[in-house]
Amino acid sequence: MDSPLIELKHVYKSYEQDLTILEDINLRIGKGEFVFVNGPSGAGKTTLLKVMLCLERSTKGEVWVDGINLKRLSNSKIPYLRRRMGMVFQDFKLIENLTVFENVALSMEVCGIKKSAIEQRVDQVLKSLGLEIKKRIYPRRLSGGEQQRVAVARAVVNDPLVLLADEPTGNLDAGRAADIMSLFSEISARGTTVIFATHNQELIRSTAKRVIILDQGRIVN
Amino acid sequence: MSVITYIIPRTFSNMRGNWLSHLMTALTIAFVVLIFGLSTLIYFNLHRLAENYSREIRIVTYIDPAFFPEDIENLKAKVLKLHGVANIRHVTSQEGYQRLVQQFQDEKDILTGLGEDFLPPTLEIEVTGTMHNLERIRPLVSELTSLPGITDVYYGKEWVERLRQAADFTRLITFAIGGLLLLTTIFVVSNTIKLTIYLRRNELETMRLVGATNFFIRGPFVLEGILQGLMGSGLAMLALFALFEFLKTQVNFPGFIRFFSPIFLPISVVTGIIAGSIILCAVVSAFSMRQFLRV
Predict the structure, then answer these.
(1) Between B125 and which of A162, B59, B155, B233 could a Cys-Cys bridge form, CB atoms 3.0 to 4.6 Å apart?
(2) Shortest CA distance to A118 belongs to which of A129, A106, A130, A128?
(3) Domain A6-95+162-219 is classified in which CATH homologous superfamily?
């Protein structure tokens, strides 16, 4: 791997002196790579993703994303970094009083993109994810799998460099989980780096992807 | 771009969704601004009245009745030389009596038994323009008092001072209400914004995750504050104007201010109050967001 898209060098994250969540994390993830982050609950998977998205700052060490040292990134620049990254959560984090279309469009609106361009792109993404007929519907009327697909649509609508997913299949049954998994594989195949945090061993076994195993804040493989 | 396509529509949709809370906030602001405006209006008119009254100050000096006409002429000459005296008129006891007769035409009995010379002769002094001020007239009054033959000096000091005191007191009240306005607005607007933030915390968190800047997140809230300030203070100024027009036709001003015509606050003051309320609400909204706008 010549120049990784994401690189973590001796990263530590602790909240108090005796509460260390991440410990000496060293990691290199290349462009277009699909990586699972696996480990039991409380292993530090979510914190690792938050550090990459700059939702949390590392206590020690360096985090590099697409050539940017996050340690030196000012607070005012963080939103611009996040626009180049998409994130999908276990609880979807959809806005209840916005329609499917408006939820997906939000990612583009915050970038100040023209309304006509937003309409065109959101329609295109919703169509590719089979959500076109649901665009005027509010999230509470969708199934769990559909809601997660809307969350994925919102994460990919800006063509991000990297897609971070935190237990995106955690609230879904096995069939829906497999659908979402294949959706992420497609996204990865188009050149987007995918970092997929899950404790679901079965899901990992079903694919032949790189796996990073975390336990008590340390990489153990 | 995002101001037009996102912030303005979002502000109106938020206000529609939470209209009761916004209406209560605007009404509270309107109530406090109305009290502040009323107090300012009273101060403004009392101040004008005091100024008008000061402009009409005349000094009346009472002359020792034992003075001979030639002594009075000498006295007149001395008074005319004093700084600030524009004109002088000698009113004899008889002239004074005739004025009383004319004033009490319907109640002539009051004057029964009083001789035509029961009033002391007086000198009515008109002062120059620069002397139409209580502070400047005082040295002239003390000079007049020290002249031999002058027994007393009257210049309506009590009324002017009472008006000034009333105006000063009203100004104090206006400042106090201004302080109250400040505190109430801070409390009400910040609580409305905090309530809205609480209700929409998931949405705001999602916005941060997808890369919204603080300006983008804060924009609708600040605009809501601006609109609340505009609606509240605008409503208050309209209500104040209606109240003023109503009271003007209902209140009969007593005695010496019968000819005083009160006026509404100048447009500059009205604009200032509205602009001040808007700025205050916008600043409070922006500050209420601060604790939320972490990275």
Answers:
(1) B59
(2) A106
(3) P-loop containing nucleotide triphosphate hydrolases (3.40.50.300)
